Amino acid sequence: MTTVEVTASKCYQVEIGRGLLPLLGEKVAGLGKANKVCIVSDSNVWPLYGAAADLSLKMAGLDTCSFVFPAGEESKSGATYLELLQFLADSRLSRQDIIVALGGGVVGDLAGFAAATYLRGIRFVQVPTTLLAAVDSSVGGKTAIDLPAGKNLAGAFCQPSLVLCDLDCLDSLPEDTFRDGCAEIIKTAILFDEALFMELVRDGLGFDRERVIARCVEHKRNIVNADEYDRGQRNLLNLGHTIGHAVEALSEYGLSHGQCVAIGTAIAGRACANLGICDYGVSARIQWLLRQFGLPLYTHFSAAMLATAALSDKKRSGSTVNLIIPLAIGNCAIRPTPVEELENFIQAGL
Ligand code: GLY
């Protein structure tokens, strides 16, 4: 097992290894003071791991209840959030008690936001069951729900008390979902770590899961420790996301998050090469690795459509949008770009 420690406004451990789910109860009891635990999960994950999580918590002497909602981004809504708050109140969870988020990004975001706001904040534990949640969304305390106006528009920064990443849970992932998480791993390598990039080139989908996930979590931990509230450096984690979110919205979520991040990253790389910001070799290496992992590189949406969609995203700040620019593998920069230049930038990378 590998442990990574986050020391942001709250200190907590991210534990990564096999056979951790049966230890959930012991670990949650070890956080102290809780009597009751509410497991929040979705209709895909609960049938696979719900009973094991529940049994482990009960064996540790904790009283449990569970809230299971239909799987999918549509559930990250105000309606499900209010239902969950009402369920927590009906189940009489107190301020000492704990929520366990058992699932992928949607579960973590929704359960985390409920934990951040129920009784003005109770503790929660993330148990990521997708690769994407393991390497990105379960760590760092971003919690949110979607509004009709867009993704993640209501949320809070709220760090979990523990992240328990059981690699056994990743074994049951459909291949497309696994590849989705790989897009965030490749993003991390482009941002911070040429050695990790080369390891992915060498090993492809057979990469050492514990080591690679731990490496990504360490990089994320470093950024979160430095800029928990996303006022500067944390913006780097949006590589491929500004344009990627635009593709996601325009496809009406027909393409997955990881596929859209891959397209956004490829466009950013090609644009930087064509505009003389980085060498063509950097863009070529990025595209080669994304393709190796079966991720897409192109979109049929026009630069004008993508720019309009990107500018309605919350990443806009006044008259500029922060683009994340690959300068070399392992070295990226934040470039505030006037909104009127965004379309030209995208056009250069289509
Ligand atoms: N997923 C990006 C961040 O946590 O900032």
What does this structure look like?
The structure is a single chain. The chain is α/β, with parallel strands linked by helices and 350 residues long. It has two domains: 2-172, 3-Layer(aba) Sandwich (Rossmann fold); 176-349, Dehydroquinate synthase-like, alpha domain (Up-down Bundle), CATH 1.20.1090.10. The protein is built from 14 helices and twelve strands. The protein has helices at 24-29, 46-59, 78-90, 105-117, 131-137, 167-170, 175-192, 194-203, 209-226, 241-250, 257-274, 280-292, 303-311, 339-349; strands spanning 2-7, 11-17, 36-42, 63-69, 98-103, 123-128, 142-147, 150-157, 162-166, 316-317, 320-328, 331-338. The protein is globular and about 60 Å long. It binds glycine.
Cofactors, ions, other ligands = glycine
Sequence stretches where pLDDT stays below 50 over 5 or more residues: none
Distance between the termini: 42 Å
Structural class: alpha/beta
Strand content: 15-25%
Number of helices: 14
Main beta-sheet strand count, sense and barrel state: 7 strands, mixed
Name of the level-1 CATH class of the largest domain: Mainly Alpha
Strand ordering within the main sheet: 1-2-9-6-5-3-4
**Overall outline:** globular
